[in-house]
């Protein structure tokens, strides 16, 4: 049985993957550059600019498809996280934190982005809040006590 936190983390990962797909589908320069780099490194094909000028269209359409697929699966996992977590705040903060972390990882790996100290401070504060949410226990009333109070 999968816990709510795992569903929320997967939802955050898929949200970051959807953002990555959107950035790749709307930015032709990224896709063309990746195509040219890939052809140069993995093959002996020297006419990569001519090929990549038309290949980037199907690649961008593939990214649009991935965008929609990742969003659908992300919302499914987020809904399951809301059902399984003790509070909606826990599911929301966990999804948001994992989305930030995976967005940072994707940005570094694919776009060679660098993150300022303020970005890392924000991530640390988000993760601290997440630990506080997960660390607190919520007292639950038994059914008899709940009936007495109503």
UniProtKB/TrEMBL annotation:
It comes from the Eukaryota. Keywords: Membrane, Signal, Transmembrane, Transmembrane helix. The chain crosses the membrane at residues 57-78, 90-111, 117-133. InterPro entries: EamA_dom, EmrE-like, TMEM42. SUPFAM superfamilies: Multidrug resistance efflux transporter EmrE. The keyword Transcription regulation does not apply. Residues 1-22 form the signal peptide. One of its GO terms (cellular component) is membrane. Pfam families: EamA. The keyword Acyltransferase does not apply. PANTHER family: TRANSMEMBRANE PROTEIN 42. This is (Atlantic silverside) hypothetical protein.
